[in-house]
Design goal:
By secondary structure, the protein is α+β, with helices and mostly antiparallel strands. It has one domain: Orthogonal Bundle (Cytochrome p450), CATH 1.10.630.10. Helix content is 46%, strand content 8%. The protein contains 14 helices and 10 strands. The strands form 3 sheets. A 5-stranded mixed beta sheet has the order 1-2-3-8-5. Strand 1, helix 1 and strand 2 form a beta-alpha-beta unit. It starts with 7 loop residues before the first strand and ends in a 6-residue tail after the last strand.
């Protein structure tokens, strides 16, 4: 058996354009499925690109996001500049692993039911319609991300958390700081995090005094007081902060990327215009096909393991490259092609196992609603620039596009 070649890559890996997969992924999957990755911090980690390896590590309850107490855990951001999502941070009150984490997931997961997502859908649709109305009134070309991609998830997550959507510009800044890798200085990041924490602590105090029907109100009513085993104020604040970031930043970026992917080869868009019933499978295929999702998910090994013949000792940080795994031909036939009818589609865009994204039903619903409204209202939509001239979102843990310039036939709007 020919020994596999050791390779070192520098993250984030990028393709020739923001919508294209890096050629290195296929090379790594074929010849070095467990590579060494150098992060912007200068730290190194093991880098996994095969579907089976990524899913196995993500689904293993022994391994979780690196914590401040984990010796030698690899940091993403240089000089400790990253926010809690980018680097291990002991101040985040949500337990990362074990029974404490599962208890938190059980509490929060009660909110994200299929019934509740169905109930939220009409409001999402009305908001998307209103945002498209405003975009059409302003006229093209327009930035779809700024016009629809960003505001729709903000309004939705603000409703879920019971915070005013008028504060969305502040939320956006704080979210960027939370996900910072190289965009802000360490001092700017600390200041933003402190402001965000104070804001959410004040909101939690208001919820304690008068719990509503939102998620935090549910946690207070169902869990009771902290002394009775209910969630602490710190846990509630951390939950609100984490969901505000995850609930709008990633979905806002994905609405823009999904639309750009469908318009980059306009036959995809035209097929959906002709057959809107494909929206659900098209959304999941866009999630699978997305090559620009950021750095991947880190996991800290608490035991010695072996992956593809390479021993990884306890204390190793592993970066799971979900978008690379989602292009693995071993799992997805014709993986390099975007198949709008692909089903089943067991992609890993939302992770897997005990740490899989709790809000994935919400994200899917928002993406479906955004696409349904755009197809119905703007069937003539197209990119205003060639796909290769789109610009990546830089300096954050998540991937995305800086803007998604679009045009349409005014008479059709």
């Amino acid at each position: 058996m020919t020994p596999r070649q050791e390779q070192t890559v520098r993250l984030p890996l990028t393709g020739d354009s923001p919508l294209e997969a890096p050629a290195a992924w296929e090379t790594l999957r074929s010849g070095c499925p467990v590579a060494t990755a150098e992060l912007p911090s200068g730290d190194t980690a093991a880098y996994l690109t095969r579907y089976a390896d990524v899913k196995n590590v993500l689904a293993d309850p022994r391994f979780a996001r690196p914590a401040a107490t984990d010796p030698g855990a690899a940091r993403v951001a240089p000089d400790g500049a990253g926010g809690p999502a980018a680097d291990a941070d002991g101040s985040v009150a949500i337990p990362d692993r074990g029974e404490g984490h599962q208890r938190w997931r059980r509490r929060v997961g009660k909110y994200f039911t299929a019934k509740r997502m169905t109930a939220l859908r009409p409001g999402m649709t009305a908001m998307a319609e209103s945002l498209v109305d405003a975009m059409v009134e302003r006229g093209g070309p327009a930035d779809l991300k700024a016009s629809l991609g960003f505001p729709l998830p903000v309004f939705v997550i603000c409703e879920i958390l019971g915070v005013p959507a008028e504060h969305r510009e502040r939320f956006s800044h704080w979210s960027d700081a939370f996900l910072n890798v190289t965009r802000f200085t360490a001092e700017q990041t600390r200041t933003a995090q402190a402001e965000f924490t104070r804001y959410m602590e004040a909101h939690v105090a208001a919820v304690r005094a008068d719990p509503g029907d939102d998620l935090l109100g549910m946690l207070v009513r169902d869990g009771g007081a902290e002394e009775d085993g209910g969630p602490s104020d710190e846990e509630l604040a951390a939950t609100g902060m984490g969901l505000l970031v995850a609930g709008h930043e990633t979905t806002a970026n994905m609405i823009g990327k999904m639309t750009a992917l469908l318009l980059a080869d306009r036959s995809r868009w035209e097929r959906l215009v002709a057959d809107p019933a494909l929206v659900r499978t098209a959304v999941d295929e866009a999630l699978r096909f997305d090559a620009n999702s950021g750095f991947g998910i880190r996991r800290y090994l608490t035991e010695d393991i072996e992956i593809d013949g390479r021993p990884l000792p306890s204390g190793t940080t592993v970066v799971c490259a979900m978008p690379a795994a989602n292009r693995d031909e071993r799992m997805f036939p014709d993986a390099a092609s975007m198949d709008l009818t692909r089903s089943p589609n067991p992609h890993l865009a939302f992770g897997a196992g005990p740490h899989a994204c709790l809000g994935q039903a919400l994200a899917r619903t928002e993406l479906q609603v955004a696409l349904e409204v755009l197809l119905r209202r703007l069937p003539t939509l197209r990119l205003a620039v060639p796909a290769g001239e789109l610009h990546r979102l830089e300096g954050l843990l998540v991937g995305g596009l800086r803007e998604v310039p679009v045009v349409w036939e005014e008479s059709a709007a």
